[in-house]
Amino acid sequence: MAFREINAKMIEATVTPGQRLFSQRGAMLAYRGEVSFTPSTAGGQGGIMSMIGRRVADEDTPLMTVEGSGTVLFGHGGHHIQVIRLTGDTLYVEADRLLAFEGSLQQGTMFLGSQGGVMGMVRGQVSGQGLFTTTLKGQGAVAVMAHGGVIEIPITPQRPVHVDPQAYVAHHGDVRNKLSTALGWRDMVGRGSGEAFQLELSGSGAVYVQASEEKL
Amino acid sequence: MSTYQSPGAGPVVFDPATLPPDDKVNDYTFCVELKGSQWFLQKGKMIAYYGSIDFNGVGHGRLDRLVRTSFHSPLHASDWVVAEGSGKMLLADRAFDVNSYDLTEGNLTIRSGNLLAFQPTLSLKQSIVPGFLTLIGTGKFVAASNGPVVFMDPPIRVDPQALVGWADCPSPCHHYDHGYMTGVMGGLRALTGLGGASGEEHQFEFVGAGTVLLQSSETLMAEQATGAVPHQAGVPGGGAHGPQAGQSGVPRLPGQLGDLQRRFGL
């Protein structure tokens, strides 16, 4: 396995020849062996079109390619790190939360409006995702950053999960999400509960929630 | 010792007898026991104490002999105080992880902002590497780090910001990665600045025997001036106050109207 958790805020990645990793620029803490870090101009995988797509979608985090043979320690900004192992399904995550991911994963961008139309876009605004979000698909591991510890909540068809949009980190699987609002007159006069917007996730998969309402 | 025994049991309440002597209270707090002895500590890192403890600046005349034997860094003299007396004091630093380390006839170099306190049996010197301090001798010291400290053996290359320190003299040197400058794309990048740098062109390289201490983040602990009493939140008359109610959001009505808004809780 490419990523090994050393502690809550640091992971160790093993790099072998022919197996490259992508990581956020400047997130390397230390390395051993012959490893090279190349800034990835395209900001990830795919050709020039994917790059333009990412630029337009504002999902182009500065990434770098990590190649060679050795071990690399990753960590960034004192954020907690969650390693998510994907087995064929798709992970939806904000690009700036990506710490590192294996090159075997397919990177893409998704328009939030395609899931629920206008409400999808509103949802993106509320949860801080913007109009687009990054998808990673395939077999491999992803290291995701979060402010505070991360818990994984399974989503089953019978039991949808409600998440505070600010505490939402990522989700994977066959999940539909919609924004549920509980706006009332109290919110208008500033005496609301502060929980007027919630993200409702239903389907089957898992959602990752951080123990903080602070964004990265 | 965990702070919470079981859900619902509430926090452990410590008193002078149950505080662990010279040990961690939890991951973020360290307890030092003084029995007429002295400790050096960085200003503002003491959060509470029991007993009678005096805190004097390093420049204090009475401490002359102590400073002569174990404090050899005029650059940092203003940041350090000597605690003496008897009692127990708690040390913490902005919720960073704290740990104590024991040196026996050893040496350890540490980033100056990460060192919280040390026993005077150790002597403190400035490292040749700017911003680092070297502790030599036998004794205990307390250091903070952003995230738990990870110990690695050389050879290793470390991001400068992730480096906490090193022990037993591996050789630290700079390593510049020139790979990013080579090739057509590298040249283009260097020329135009397009594509940016990977941010990893420069590391500290450690070779030789010893141990390298890493912290698990690249956020440096800001070497801010701590310990100054005025202009601190929570200090009465200190200047900085919490957010004032009513200042947030709703603008005040002209003429205040007898502060109607506040009466309605707006």
TrEMBL record, chain A:
Record-linked InterPro entries: AIM24, AIM24_sf, Trp_RNA-bd_attenuator-like_dom
Pfam family, one: AIM24
SUPFAM superfamilies: TRAP-like (SSF51219)
Stored Gene3D superfamilies: Mitochondrial biogenesis AIM24
Superkingdom of origin organism: Bacteria
Record PANTHER family: ALTERED INHERITANCE OF MITOCHONDRIA PROTEIN 24, MITOCHONDRIAL (PTHR38074)
Record-given protein name: AIM24 family protein
Source organism of this protein record: Streptomyces cahuitamycinicus
Automatic annotation (TrEMBL), chain B:
InterPro entries: AIM24, AIM24_sf, Trp_RNA-bd_attenuator-like_dom
Highest taxon in the source lineage: Bacteria
Residue ranges, annotated region (Disordered): 229-266
A Pfam family recorded for this sequence: AIM24
Signal peptide start-end: none
Protein name: Ser or Arg-related nuclear matrix protein
Protein's organism: Streptomyces cahuitamycinicus
